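Per-record layout

source: Thiohalospira halophila DSM 15071
name: Coenzyme A biosynthesis bifunctional protein CoaBC
length: 222
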Amino acid sequence: LGSRSLTGRCVMVTAGPTREPVDPVRYLGNRSSGKTGFAIAAAARRAGARVILVAGPVNLATPPGVERVDVQTAEEMRYAVHAWVGACDLFVGTAAVADYRPAEPAAGKVKRDGEGRTLSLVPNPDILAEVAARPKPPLTMGFAAETGDVEANARAKLASKGIDLVVANEVGEGKGFDTDDNTVTVLWEGGRRRLGPAPKTELARELVALAAARLDGTLQGG
Ligand code: C5P
């Protein structure tokens, strides 16, 4: 593969967590660092693509040459994604989008009153599945963080979300989240490839190369 394998292509990457407001000072969130998505955005840019990075709240510098859109909630991420993804050839969903959000965030700070409380939640949109369901979808790559039956669960995600490539990784104690090294298996209809263990930056480069090969129609089954 040439080092500029994505020249002339547009790549969109979602990264990081989302924050779903409970009230003006509190939110539901998760531990996603955003490292994987930022590394993929950087690798895609180095491969010559125009890169749009839709990022939740993370403490990471924007990779050189990457266009960044900052969002907080899943709804904001969805809006930003649909606003720009029509121009893109590849969509990589790495964001840890909150599955649920508070049904009605309180307008003012919730006060302690010594009583128990129940928080009512509603499901968030599946942004990756929505992109895959667009009339002219880009090539779609999703991630599947699983704690068991990793490959089977990840492969099921290909069909349930209607995506082209799924990157399966096992998460748990010291694995996957908030770490620098990772081992993943990329699965697609009729193929698979194991990558790593390697630093996330190296894996990102290999994932981008794999997606570029798929875009060019040169990806072999493996
Ligand atoms: O279904 P699950 O959350 O395990 O799927 C993970 C994949 O789907 C990731 O690629 C993630 O970025 C994407 N996703 C999404 N919107 C959601 C939930 C997950 O884009 N609401």
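summary: The pocket of cytidine-5'-monophosphate is lined by residues 14, 74, 93-95, 97, 124-128, 142-144 (CB under 6 Å). The longest strand covers residues 191-199.
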